[in-house]
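in:
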C-alpha cells in the first residue's frame, strides 16, 4: 500500500478510533511511510494505542514494521498526536522514534498535557524534520474529551436530557418511566459505557433509587462500569441501589459544581455524564461547564409537569446560552440530538493551525 502523508494521517485517524474511549490515555494512531516527499509512499508499519499500559501508537507501528521485516530508518512517522516525551508505564515515544532512525515526524495536534508535551522540540533538536497541523481539526475532535482536563483542569461534561416535546421530564404526578423508548434508553446505556463517571443529585437518588449502571440492550452489565457519583449533602439509605457492588460509588457532599469537578479531576475522571435532575442540570449550566448536550426527544406532550432544567440565571433572550446541533439521529419513535457549545469557554484554546514546520525551540 502506498499513501501520501495526508492519506496516511487519515489512515492514522481511522486506526486511532480502534482504541478505547475510556481511560487515562488518548486514542492515537500512527502510520510509518518510506522516505520521500508528498507523493504516495510505501507503508512500512501501522499501530494504535490499545489502552493504558500497552504500547503507544508509535511503538506499535515500529513493532509492526519489524514484523514485516522492513527497516524504518529515514522514514516518516505520521501521528495523530505529538509524540510524548515522558516516561509513564511505557517509555517516551520520542526515544522509540529516535532509536529507530526516523527522519521525519508529521503530527496533527500538540499534546495538551504539560507532563507529556515537548516531543516536537526534542525531535527537532535531534535533527528530525517535524511538521505539525495536518488534519488538525479531525484529530482535535478525536481527543477533545481526553484533552479537556489538561486544557481546563476539569472533566469534559455531557449533560443528558430525556424530555417531551414541551420540555418536561416528568408528569404532574411525578411519573417519568418511561418518557423515551427502549431504543433511546439502549443508546443512553451505550453512552454510559463510554464515560468515566455518571452524576445525579441527592434529590434524584432519593426519589428514583437509580442503579446508574451501564447495561446491554438485554439488561446485562457491561464489563467496565463508570463511577456513580451523587452530589448533595443529604444521606442515602444503606439499601440504596447506588451502594451495591455492581459499580463504584462516590458521594460528594457539596453543591459546589466547581469543587465537585476538581475532585473528579483529581480522581482522573476525563468524561462526566450528568443525568439529573433539573436542579443539578441548572447548577452545571449556571457554572458554565457543560461542553455537550445529549437530548433524547420523545413525541409526547404533557402541558404540565417538571421542567427539564430549573432556572439558572438567564433573564433575557440576549443572555441565552447558544448551542449548535450535530445531525439528528432517529431512535425508534424518538430523536437524539447532540448539541455543542456555539461559543467556547474563555479558557478553551483556538484550533491548531494548518500544516507548518515546527518552529525552532517549539
Amino acid at each position: 500500500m502506498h499513501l501520501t502523508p495526508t492519506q496516511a494521517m487519515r489512515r492514522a485517524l481511522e486506526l486511532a478510533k480502534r482504541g478505547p474511549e475510556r481511560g487515562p490515555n488518548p486514542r492515537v494512531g500512527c502510520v510509518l511511510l518510506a522516505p520521500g516527499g508528498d507523493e504516495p509512499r510505501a507503508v512500512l508499519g501501522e499501530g494504535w494505542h490499545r489502552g493504558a499500559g500497552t504500547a503507544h501508537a508509535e511503538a506499535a507501528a515500529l513493532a509492526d514494521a519489524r514484523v514485516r521485516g522492513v527497516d524504518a530508518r529515514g522514514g516518516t512517522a505520521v501521528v495523530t498526536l505529538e509524540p510524548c516525551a515522558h516516561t509513564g508505564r511505557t517509555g517516551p515515544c520520542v526515544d522509540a522514534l529516535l532509536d529507530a532512525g526516523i527522519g521525519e515526524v508529521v503530527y496533527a495536534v500538540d499534546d495538551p498535557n504539560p507532563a507529556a508535551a515537548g516531543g516536537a522540540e526534542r525531535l527537532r533538536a535531534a535533527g528530525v524534520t517535524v511538521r505539525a497541523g495536518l488534519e488538525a481539526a479531525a484529530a482535535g475532535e478525536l481527543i477533545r474529551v481526553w484533552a479537556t482536563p489538561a486544557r481546563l483542569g476539569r472533566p469534559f461534561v455531557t449533560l443528558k436530557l430525556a424530555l417531551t416535546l414541551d420540555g418536561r421530564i416528568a408528569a404532574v404526578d411525578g411519573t417519568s418511566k418511561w418518557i423515551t423508548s427502549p431504543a433511546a434508553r439502549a443508546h443512553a446505556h451505550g453512552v454510559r459505557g463510554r464515560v468515566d463517571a455518571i452524576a445525579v443529585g441527592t434529590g434524584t437518588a432519593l426519589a428514583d433509587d437509580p442503579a446508574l449502571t451501564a447495561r446491554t440492550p438485554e439488561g446485562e452489565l457491561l464489563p467496565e462500569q463508570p463511577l456513580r457519583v451523587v452530589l448533595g449533602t443529604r444521606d442515602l439509605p444503606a439499601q440504596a441501589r447506588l451502594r451495591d457492588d455492581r459499580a463504584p460509588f462516590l458521594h460528594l457532599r457539596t453543591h459546589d459544581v466547581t469543587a465537585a469537578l476538581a475532585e473528579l479531576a483529581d480522581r482522573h475522571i476525563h468524561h462526566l455524564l450528568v443525568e439529573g435532575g433539573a436542579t443539578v442540570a441548572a447548577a452545571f449550566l449556571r457554572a458554565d461547564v457543560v461542553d455537550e448536550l445529549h437530548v433524547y426527544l420523545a413525541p409526547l406532550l404533557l402541558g404540565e409537569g417538571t421542567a427539564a432544567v430549573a432556572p439558572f440565571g438567564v433573564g433575557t433572550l440576549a443572555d441565552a446560552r447558544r448551542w449548535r446541533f450535530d445531525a439528528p439521529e432517529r431512535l425508534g419513535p424518538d430523536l437524539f440530538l447532540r448539541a455543542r457549545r456555539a461559543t467556547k469557554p474563555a479558557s478553551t484554546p483556538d484550533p491548531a493551525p494548518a500544516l507548518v514546520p515546527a518552529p525552532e525551540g517549539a
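note: Confidence is low (pLDDT under 50) at residues 345-362.
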